[in-house]
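Hi support team,

I've been running sequence recovery on a batch of backbones for a student project. Most finish fine, but this one hangs at about 90% for roughly twenty minutes before it completes. I'm not sure whether the input is malformed or the queue is just slow. I've pasted the structure tokens below so you can try to reproduce it. Let me know if you need the job ID as well.

Thanks,
M.K.
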């Protein structure tokens, strides 16, 4: 039986079929057509960055970023453990070692106060994750990176159109990586993008993304033929994917406004439960604006969290937990290391429940709140 309130429902906002039909009729189905260029220009304009590339996923965007950082065997990259495996895999794939530090208890982002102490002569970069679309403290992290000559990469998979001190996520460091997976705010089924600061050589990024060839230089008339010139892979999406994404980006503000209405409803509806000590609502620093990617609550214990999720499912409302911290995973124990105590990372994710949140949710959010509060009353007698 499908839940009355599913956890996620991919948005369809208007021109997807129209633009996919345009792509089909153009007979240009591979990468780098008019729809790809439209999407890349949109990213450049909205983020005020000189260059951006669409990729087949945020995973591939992160792998491209790791290659642009020139990470290799023996190099270390500082990052949070509370993230999707792609953040760490991008480093491991290049022979590097992810070094995890603990998270902040308020935003669940990397604790910037712990980063500098984790730096060693082998440290090459810092990968920052903006959890739930709430940006990490980028001024502090960038200052540390500048002092030590490190590259900073934003894993902004969840943070399209979020801001930090009025500046857009994905343009707060050397590179920013986005996801357009169907679970994100703006989707293309599978898909991603990387935004490049002026420090990052665009043509080098193109070489890596185009199978290690200098095809872009050839297309620009800079060389008379193109050939294999460096390491690379096939990272660019088809025009079908880009056409779908263009339709979504055209409606980006409307999508996020709709999600924000649901997020704000949750936040208001659960205020009394927080005052009663039944849960903790998300905390958004004053310098950040977020994009309503996730609404989560922290419950008093892991057992209560598990019971509440099961109870909500029985009430036909889908809620879920989130990442298992990477340092505690089988691969994490083999391929990474931690620096310092991981107290918050070891405890807070065990208490986290994500509520359903999707474009067009409307009054279904009321059912989700009702199910959550009834589940809590059934378990704690409140």
């Amino acid at each position: 039986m499908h839940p009355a309130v599913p956890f996620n429902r991919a948005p369809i906002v208007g021109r997807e079929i129209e633009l996919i039909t345009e792509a089909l009729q153009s007979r240009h189905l591979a990468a780098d057509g008019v729809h790809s260029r439209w999407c890349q220009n949109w990213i450049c304009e909205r983020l005020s960055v000189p260059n951006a590339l669409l990729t087949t996923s945020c995973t591939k965007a992160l792998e491209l970023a790791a290659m642009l950082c020139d990470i290799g065997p023996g190099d270390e990259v500082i990052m949070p453990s509370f993230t999707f495996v792609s953040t760490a895999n991008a480093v491991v794939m290049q022979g590097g070692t992810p070094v995890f530090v603990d998270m902040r208890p308020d935003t669940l982002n990397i604790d910037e106060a712990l980063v500098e102490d984790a730096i060693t002569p082998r440290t090459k970069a810092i990968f920052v994750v903006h959890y739930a679309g709430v940006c990490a403290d980028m001024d502090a992290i960038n200052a540390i990176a500048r002092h030590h000559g490190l590259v900073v990469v934003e894993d902004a998979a969840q943070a399209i159109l979020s801001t930090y001190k009025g500046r857009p996520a994905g343009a707060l460091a050397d590179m920013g990586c986005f996801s357009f997976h169907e679970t994100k705010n703006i989707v293309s089924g599978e898909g991603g993008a990387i935004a490049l600061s002026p420090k990052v050589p665009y043509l080098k990024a193109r070489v890596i993304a185009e199978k290690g060839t200098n095809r872009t230089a050839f297309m620009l008339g800079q060389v008379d033929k193109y050939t294999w010139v460096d390491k690379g892979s096939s990272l660019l999406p088809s025009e079908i994917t880009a056409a779908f994404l263009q339709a979504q980006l055209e409606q980006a503000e409307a999508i996020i406004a709709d999600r924000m209405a649901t997020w704000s409803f949750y936040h208001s509806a659960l205020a009394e439960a927080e005052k009663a000590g039944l849960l903790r609502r998300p905390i958004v620093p004053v310098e950040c604006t977020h994009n309503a990617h996730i609404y989560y609550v922290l419950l008093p214990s892991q057992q209560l969290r598990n019971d509440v999720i099961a109870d909500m499912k029985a009430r036909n409302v889908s809620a879920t937990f989130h990442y298992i911290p990477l340092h505690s995973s089988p691969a994490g124990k083999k391929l990474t290391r931690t620096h310092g105590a991981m107290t918050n990372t070891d405890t807070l994710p065990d208490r986290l429940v994500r509520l359903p949140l999707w474009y067009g949710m409307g009054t279904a959010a009321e059912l989700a709140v009702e199910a959550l509060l009834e589940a809590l009353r059934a378990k704690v007698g409140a």
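--
Follow-up from support: It reproduced on our side and the slowdown came from queue contention, not your input. The first strand starts at residue 51 and ends at 55. No action needed from you.
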